[in-house]
Amino acid sequence: MLRVGLTGGIGAGKSTVANRLAEHGAVLVDSDRIAREVVEPGTEGLARLVEEFGTEILAADGSLDRPVLAAKAFADDESRHKLNAIVHPLVGARTGELMAAAKPDAIIVHDIPLLVENGLATAYHLVVVVDAPVEVRVRRLVSARGMAEDDARARIRAQAGTEQRRAVADVWLDNGGAEDAVLAEVDALWADRLVPFEANVRLRRPRPPMSPKIAAYDLAWPAQAERVLARVRAAAGELAVRADHIGSTAIPGLPAKDVLDLQLTVSTSDDAETLRELLCDAGFPRLEGGWYDDAQDGGEPWPKCLHVGADPKRPVNLHVRSVETPAWRLALLFRDFLRANPDERDDYRDVKLRLAEAHAADGTVEAYADEKQEWVNGAFGRAEKWAVATGWTP
Ligand code: ADP
User: Which of 69, 79, 102, 310 places its Cα 20 to 30 Å from the Cα of 86?
Assistant: First the structure.
C-alpha cells in the first residue's frame, strides 16, 4: 500500500484535496475525525479524560464539552501534557488500525494537520502540502466556515509556517486561486504519480530503462535528496551507518541526469540483505541480479545492492554499500573532490555531455555509464592525492 501524508495550514484546502482524492479511490484517514471519535461517549478515551480533569468536562448529554476541556488542559504545560498523553496514543492506535485494514493495493491519504509540527514526514511515501496565502485562508475560514476572524488568525499563528512545510513537501499544491485549478492538479497527481507509485511499490517494479539525458544543475536537488534520505534513514534504523547524497546531482553547478544518487552505508552485506524488504516497502524496490563497483585495487569487483525510488516523478538510485568494501568511502571522496575542484568538475561535465550525445538513442544508460567510468576511475587516483594533501576523511 502507498501512504500519502496530506497537510497544510487550516483553511488551505486539505479537505477539498482529500475529498477529490477519495473520489478517485483513495482510502481517507482523517486525523481530526479520529481525534473526535476516540473521546466519544462510551469510549475509554472519554473515561480517562474525566478521571484526569473531572466531570465538569462533560456536557449535559454526556458528551465532551470541548471549550471546558480546552480551558483546563491548556491552562499550563503539565495539564496539556496529561491531555496529550491520553489522546495521542489512542489516536495513534486507531490510525494504525485503519491503515492496517486497508487492502494491499490501497492508496491511503492521511489528512493530518500537524504532520510538520509532529515531525511525521518520514512515515509516508509522499508528503503533499496544500497551501494558500494567509489572507486568503482567513477570508475562507470567516466566510465559508463562519469562524471569527480573530479565532482564524490565532489558529493560523499557532501552526507551522510555510517554510517548515516547504521543507517536507514532495508535492506543493498552490490553492490560492480557483478551486477548479487545484482540483485539476489533484487529478494529475493521482493519475500520473500516485497510481503508478503504488503499483511500483507493491510489485517491486523497477524504473523503465531510458537513454542518458543530461539536465542543467537544479538548485532543488539537495533538498529533494534530503527528504528521500530521511525516509531511507527511518527505514534502515540502526542498521544505517550513514546515508548520503552522492553522485553528480550532489555537485553544485554540475549538469547531470535527473536521477538522485543516494548511498546507504551498512556494516555488512548481511545487513543489506536484512534491509531488502524494509527498503522495498519504504518505496525503494531492489533491482535483482548482481551489482558491482569496479575494484580500484585490481582485485575482484566490489559487490553492492541497488534499490531504486518507486516514485515515478522523482527518480532515485539508492546504492547500498557495506563498509566491507572501500566503495562507500570512494563515492564520498569523489563527491567532495569534485565539489572542491571546479576544473575537475568541468572536465567531468564535458565527458558527460559528449557521451550522452553519443548514446542519446541507446534506450539504456549502460554504454554511457561504462564509458564514463573510465574518466571516473582516472579521477579516483587524483582524488586520493587530493585527500592526502588536504587531510580529507569521509
Ligand atoms: P482545510 O481542510 O485545509 O482546513 P478546506 O478544504 O476545508 O481547508 O477549505 C476551507 C474552506 O475554503 C472550505 O469551505 C472550502 O470549501 C473553501 N475552499 C477550498 N479551496 C478553495 C478555493 N480554491 N477557492 C475558494 N474556496 C475554497
Answer: 102
Residue 283 CA to residue 20 CA, distance in Å, equals 24
CB 175 within 8 A of CB 184: no
Whether residues 247 and 153 share a domain: the answer is: no
Where residue 49 sits, what CATH number does that domain have? 3.40.50.300
What is the tens place of the pLDDT at every residue in 165-192?
A: 999 999 999 999 999 999 999 999 999 9
* 15 annotated ligand binder: yes
Q: How far is the CA of 190 from the centre of ligand 1 (A)?
A: 19
Instruction: Note whether 14 and 154 are same-domain residues.
Output: yes
Q: Classify 219 as helix, strand or coil.
A: coil
- Report which protein residue has its CA nearest ligand 1's atom 27: 179
**Domain with 294 in it:** 214-390
Q: Tell me, in angstroms, the distance from the centre of ligand 1 to residue 132's CA.
A: 10
Q: For residue range 294-339, list pLDDT tens digits in order.
A: 888 888 999 999 999 999 999 999 999 999 999 999 999 999 999 9
Q: Does some domain include residue 209?
A: no
- CB-based burial label for 315 (10 Å; 0-12, 13-18, 19+): middle
Same domain, 158 and 239: no
The structural domain count of the chain equals 2
Q: What b-and-e string marks burial along 173-186, b requiring 16 or more CB atoms within 10 Å of the CB?
A: bebeeeeeebbebb
